[in-house]
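User: I'm curious whether this sequence folds into something compact or stays loose and floppy. Could you predict its structure so I can see for myself?
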Amino acid sequence: MVSRPRYVASDHTMRFLQSPFSRLVTQPWADALILQGLQKFFFPLSRLWAAAHVAEGSVERFIHEAPIQPPASKVAKIRRLLDVYEHVRLKNEMTEQLWQTYFFGEEEVSEQRLQIIEEMRLDTRTAYLMMRKQFMPLRKYVKSAIALEPPTPEEIEQQYGQPGQLEQCFALPKQRAKVERSRSINVPEGKNYWLRFYSEDMQDMAYARVHEPYGVENPPTLIFGHGIFIEFDHHHNLINEVAALNRMGIRVIRPEAPWHGRRVLPGRFGGERLLSTSPAGLIEFLSSQTKEWANWIAWSRETSSGKVAIGGSSLGAQTAKSVAVRAKDWPEILRPDALYMVTHCTHIAEAALDGALSKIWGLSDALRDKGWNKELARSWLERLDPYGEPVMPPNHIVSVLGSEDTVTPFASGNQHLDLWQVPAVNRFVYQRGHFTVPLGLIRDHEPLLQLWGILNR
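Assistant: Here's the prediction. I'll summarize afterward.
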């Protein structure tokens, strides 16, 4: 019997989320609370956490990088915090190095040691990420939740303005990157392992965690992208949202997006780089993601004869949409068979410039200060939208939306489904917001069952 690893939620938590009682918390009021929590706590604490990384124990540099103006009485407190932070950060980095050696190294490693080092990785990584809480006494001094440094319109025009320049960013490389597979660990629903390859665009290693079901030969695959700021592979006790798919016999590949998780840049927190340099950040993000996903699709085809679906939640869904349209011009082996989208909208500009989170980020104000107006920024971001028909037929598209979603506006997502002529049977709408829709899917499996039917036809 394989014990439940600590990286997923407890049986008690999962039973609650799968029960009718979970409807009490998967309501729009919870979305409002989550938005308040992000604004008041997550973003300012994340900014302080990121500044501490590059400060390397220096109080002066920390204050500059945050940036904050604390009173002199707080300096001793900051120094103690940075000392603790450096200790926790070093433990995390050393454990990650050992984890890489155990899972990807040449020497054989026992299953027991793999399980131990994976738990150690999550112990130290969780402790490192949760260091955010220690900066609570400094939260009130943070003026900007995101360190915004957008380019000027002239800089964007120079880099992407010539005919074909922007599209060239999305062109697939002539030679695909070699994918390395790690050793595996057993989990209750099957086995888990990691994939990695070198990303030319990001000049780093792209990673994905694979959740493979037991006893299924040539399983269908879902490549599922996460939302912005989500670092699913680096916390203990997360909700196990892929368990149901594994039980259905579907292999799930969960890529780690650029500037998240192992790919976070020094001085940034997960996903911040994407916003702080927009529109350039979104262009770089989506273009690199598109090429990386082509590689995950290719690996899926090479390792199973089952169908391949792409999908995601929020920004992951927008990525999947982009891939679905661009894949029409790709070799047949790279064309996905189905699309599964959770909380999405037609135009990425609607989330970045108009959605509930955009008001917290202050991106529109930062762009204006650099010479942008809202319509000019929108015109650039809309060039990233998935115009045209997707590579898969409408009846192979499954959508999950929340009627109360104000982050990726519900009406916009619905209009896109109309444009793509997605049949009503494949559209699932819940009276929830952006954050409670994914939580509700722990209990409501109808969309997953619809996807299962498509992948097993």
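Summary: Residues 68 and 336 are 47 Å apart (CA to CA). Residues 75-104 form the longest helix (30 residues).
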